[in-house]
Design goal:
By secondary structure, this protein is an alpha+beta fold. It is 21% helix and 39% strand. The chain has 15 helices and 43 strands. The protein is globular.
Length: 894
């Protein structure tokens, strides 16, 4: 999900166990650092010479001091972060130190990282000196912003604009916060009007759902905005503005707004280095406004040039996105079909992860080694995803040694400083030591679960038997340091858990080892090892008390041999190692689940001509409601307890006559969502929609045509009912404004499955499944988009499907069809004349026409509507009772 508020909170990463702890304040090194702090604060660079040891290069040292120390410095904080023995010295006689040095110069500051080599000035001496110094990294351009209490301006006809945003105030007051280059923060007081009118049709639709109109308008009493000082003329203009004596009441109100809004964007909290709030300047072209509207409370507009979708409008009260899209400028560089990897600084080739997990405390102790390659023009920092609650003890590089990092709180991120700018193609490794408490994730993205009724389970009806414990860590928990976008990589994992718990994870299980108790693991425990031989988008594991219900080889060779000959070189499999595990109370349901899983795997392999991974572990765990989650190599199915009430609202994911639905849907993700990922969040339907449709196809095979038709009717009802909430292409944002997850499932799961069903009926089975296989073969273990699927289907069919995808995937409308019929005589006998007219936009839609006879069974035929009007003649086989269209509800239309 896009981060709309650019709040950055940093703290230094703590030292790892391989390094000695920083010394106490009474030792000689601490005394040296105290004198260093005094010298820098004093602003006399020449005094730095007094700190040097006899072996120091004095010329180099003084060059460093004169570039760092100046008389303008007003405050200095020096903190030792790491210490290691200095090579070439006796133990205890020399150290290599990593320091964080915070230097204030008035309202400006910089945070720097220094390396110092320090040595005793003599054998057994308590005096220490600096032998070597190096500036590792610098974060400059920090400002302690404050409104100017001596400057108030009054204006007439102020207009502040950004792309698609207009704020107008007839008259009012303006207060500013200045930096060296001009004003960067503003508070405007006065009765005004806000207008937000996105240029994109889809975003206008979302604004309509939020505000009731495609242009969001509201009055306001005040707003705060941030810009780069050089951009003021591009965003603000007024007919008249003059300075007046400051009204204390106006300033008090403006200052309250300023203090409340400043820390929400571009702000740093430096912890022990400074108790003040420090801000970065917005980059050129960046813009942020916090508008205190009368109708909607505070709305946040941002233009952030480092995001591909750089414009957003955010509802702060409800914490929901209203609009997120690319500016006109970014659309010239990134189309709506952009790949989220287009702006990444690096890619991860492989992970090597070793973690211990303590279920009682939800405690993770981990080491992760990442093999990375620099992308783009180069980078001097690496940003890793890691849960906020996990502390980083150390980051080291195989090529560059110990690295310093800063924590980006509330964004699950760690920024690692590199010693230099690494150019494109540079390979290196990062090893991260980390630990902390982390709650297991619930079933969410790339997963399916029902929505319970409200109120959920009255106390009198709830089961008194607690659920059997299970702990899932997957794509939304950030349990290991990983790339900022989910990208394909190989991996090895070793996961240690206490007995009697067991573990299943992404990858081929390779060993289970009983460990000898140790100080780190005093109780009985086991280590489970896995290898991700075929690349996965992200890594997952689940810990629970698990019983093996079944373990078998699923033969696939007869299903893949014909397709194999047509494929490009790669690793393919003739069989799959299937393991089914369950919570102990679910063990009786394991054999049926195993039989179904084997049948599903064989069926899907027959459709695609391949099974992407050599193993699958299907795990059944207890939950109050059914659901599922399916990372690579692993499918987790949640089953309701037999002792509790199983109730849920009418839900797009509920198919009562198809109990295998969740298992069938989740297993389909091994192909759709895992073997083929999506290029950006808009493309999630390629995972969910195809998996939903494959589950329906399996229902037809396992349960018969009647069950399949029933599923199609339910999908039709939800697809038609919720289609106006936004297009399939909107992804997770469907239903987001209203907080209605059922709407998301109705459109991204069911409507998109119906679109695939209509495409199949339009192209025919042979072409449709051939196109799916072509799509899969082309994009196996890569990220794909809607246009890639369209291209595969066009190549297979020879048809132009641009309008089909434009209407059904990128649009949120439905075809409006008027149908009339009459019976005429012809030389060959009576015919039915069928007349269709699309009264709105023209869609490509196949419609079932049902001819009801009085003397024989009804007959169905598919009519493919591809023009505004169509008239066709159908010979009649008997005495006609009536003619219906879309009785099977296999087409989405009005």
């Amino acid at each position: 999900m896009k981060h709309l508020v650019l709040a950055i909170v940093c703290a230094a990463c703590l030292s790892g166990t391989a390094w000695a702890q920083p010394a106490s304040s009474t030792d000689g090194v601490a005394a040296l650092l105290g004198r260093l702090e005094q010298v820098v604060r004093g602003g006399d660079a020449e005094r730095y010479a007094d700190l040097l040891s006899g072996v120091a290069d004095r010329e180099r040292a003084m060059t460093f001091a004169r570039s760092t120390i100046s008389p303008a410095i007003t405050r200095v904080v020096v903190r030792e972060r790491d210490r290691a023995e200095l090579a070439g010295n006796l133990p205890g006689d020399g150290y290599q130190l990593l320091l964080e040095v915070f230097i204030e110069t008035g309202v400006r500051a910089r945070l720097t990282t220094w390396r110092l080599d320090v040595r005793r000035r003599g054998r057994n001496s308590e005096e220490w000196g600096i032998a070597y110094q190096e500036l590792i990294s610098t974060l400059q351009g920090l400002y302690r912003l404050a409104l100017n209490p001596r400057r108030q301006m009054v204006f007439k006809d102020l207009v502040v604009t950004a792309e698609d945003l207009r704020l107008t105030v007839a008259e009012g007051s303006l207060f500013v916060a200045d930096v060296d280059g001009g004003a960067t923060a503003f508070v405007v007081l006065g009765h005004g009007e806000m207008s937000f009118a996105p240029g994109q049709t889809t975003e206008r639709g979302q604004v309509r759902l939020f505000s009731g109109a495609e242009t969001l308008q509201s009055g306001f009493e005040a707003f705060f905005f941030r810009i780069n000082p050089g951009d003021l003329g591009a965003h603000a203009r007024t007919k008249e503005i003059v300075q007046r004596p400051v009204d204390p009441r106006d300033f008090k109100r403006a200052d309250e707004i300023f203090r409340q809004e400043l820390g929400k964007s571009f702000g740093l909290d430096l912890g022990e280095m400074s108790s003040d709030t420090w801000s970065l300047l917005p980059g050129s072209g960046d813009f942020l406004a916090e508008i205190r509207t009368r109708r909607f409370d505070t709305l946040t507009y941002t233009r952030s040039s480092n995001e591909i979708e750089d414009i957003s409008l955010y509802d702060r009260r409800n914490r929901r996105n209203i609009a997120v899209y690319s500016s006109q400028d970014h659309l010239r560089s990134f189309t709506r079909f952009y790949d989220e990897d287009d702006k990444v600084d690096y890619r991860v080739h492989s992970y090597d992860i070793d973690v211990s997990f303590a279920p009682a405390r939800r405690w993770i102790e981990g080491r992760a080694r990442l093999d990375i390659e620099i992308q783009g023009k180069g980078s001097n920092t690496i940003t890793l995803r890691l849960a906020d609650s996990l502390s980083v003890r150390s980051v080291t590089s195989g090529d560059y040694g110990r690295l310093l990092c800063v924590r980006v709180h509330n964004q699950n991120s760690v920024v690692v400083n590199l010693p230099a700018t690494l150019v494109k193609g540079t390979r290196t490794t990062l090893t991260v030591m980390y630990s902390g408490t982390l709650q297991p994730q619930s079933i969410d993205h790339e997963a399916l679960t029902l929505t319970p009724q409200m109120p959920q389970f009255p106390e009198s009806e709830q089961s008194e038997i607690p659920l059997e414990e299970s702990f899932l860590y997957s794509n939304r928990s950030y349990w290991y340091p990983q790339a900022t976008t989910a990208s394909y990589a190989n991996a090895t994992m070793r996961i240690v858990v206490p007995e009697p718990y067991s573990c299943a994870a992404s990858g081929d299980p390779v060993s289970t080892e009983k460990l000898v108790p140790s100080p780190q693991n005093p109780g009985s425990s086991r280590a489970f090892s896995f290898i991700v031989s075929q690349p996965a988008r992200y890594l997952s594991f689940i810990v629970a008390s698990l019983a093996i219900a079944r373990h078998e080889k699923v033969a696939l060779a007869p299903l893949v041999e014909a397709a194999r000959a047509l494929r490009s070189p790669g690793v393919y499999y003739d069989d799959l190692d299937l393991s089914v595990r369950t919570n102990p109370r679910l063990r009786a349901r394991g054999p049926d689940m195993a039989r179904s899983a084997g049948q599903i795997l064989r069926f899907y392999t027959s459709l695609v001509g391949d099974c992407p991974y050599p193993t699958l572990t299907a795990v059944a765990v207890e939950r109050r409601l059914p659901g599922g989650h399916s990372p690579a190599y692993l499918s987790v199915i949640s089953l309701p307890t037999a002792t509790g009430p199983i109730r849920w609202a009418d839900d797009p994911a509920s198919f009562p006559d198809f109990p295998e639905f969740f298992l069938a849907h989740e297993i389909a993700h091994q192909w759709w969502g895992q073997a083929i990922g999506w290029k950006n969040y808009h493309e999630q339907w390629l995972s969910e929609g195809i998996s939903q449709y494959f589950a329906a196809l399996y229902a037809e095979k396992a349960r018969g045509r009647g069950v399949f038709d029933s599923i199609i009717r339910r999908m039709h009802r939800w697809g038609v009912g919720e289609s106006n909430q936004g297009p399939v292409f909107l992804g997770y944002r469907i239903g987001h404004i209203k907080g209605e997850s059922r709407t998301f499932r109705a459109v991204v799961y069911n409507k998109s499955a119906m679109v695939l069903h209509m495409l199949r009926r339009l192209l025919g089975d042979q072409v449709f499944f051939g196109g799916l296989r072509r799509f899969y073969d082309t994009w196996r273990f890569r990220k794909a988009g809607s246009e890639d699927l369209r291209q595969a289907m066009e190549q297979e069919s020879g048809m132009n499907l641009e309008r089909f995808f434009e209407r059904w995937i990128y649009g949120d409308g439905l075809p409006e069809v008027t149908f009339t019929s009459r019976v005429e005589d012809s030389p060959a006998g009576p015919v039915a004349v069928l007349h269709f007219e699309q009264t709105g936009e023209v869609y490509d839609v196949p419609v079932t026409v049902t001819l009801d006879y009085t003397d024989r069974p009804a007959a169905d035929l598919i009519v493919k509507l591809t023009d505004k009007t169509l008239e066709t003649r159908v010979p009649l086989a008997g005495k006609l009772r009536k003619i219906d269209i879309n009785r099977d509800e296999a087409a989405l239309l009005k």
